Amino acid sequence: MRGLILAHVEDAASAAGRAQAREVGQEVAAEARKALEEGSARAKAAAQLLEQATREMRQHSVLRAAGITAGCSFGILAAVIAAAWFYLPSKSEMESLRAERSHLQASIEDLAKRGARIKIDPCGGRLCVAVDTDKGQSHVDWRGAWHATDGEPLAIPKGY
Fold this sequence. Notes:
2 domains, 3-stranded antiparallel sheet, rod-shaped
């Protein structure tokens, strides 16, 4: 009987131990679950903060790039306007150049009507015209100090 009682006591102790172990296991599991949930909540909060910071940095980067692009565009536009202002002639200069061009064109047409084919070359830092040595009744010896590259004699026109 004593063996039977011992067996019952062992069974009861074993059942009580299992129940207590189950209870402790459930408590540990509950604490672990609670700790995991808290950690998960903290991780979610950190992920949200990180995502928000990333969005803000992206916005700042976009704004910075837009600012740099706008600044460069303004600089290029200002350079183009300045170049046009300084290098293109004014309206009065254009009118003066057109008048001079018209005068020169009229002179060219007049010379063409008269059959003139004047050869102009530089000589001694001035402009000279080529002269014939055998034209006219009063032959003048045009062998002067200046000659064109082809050997033709040159003379400085009067009034120049």
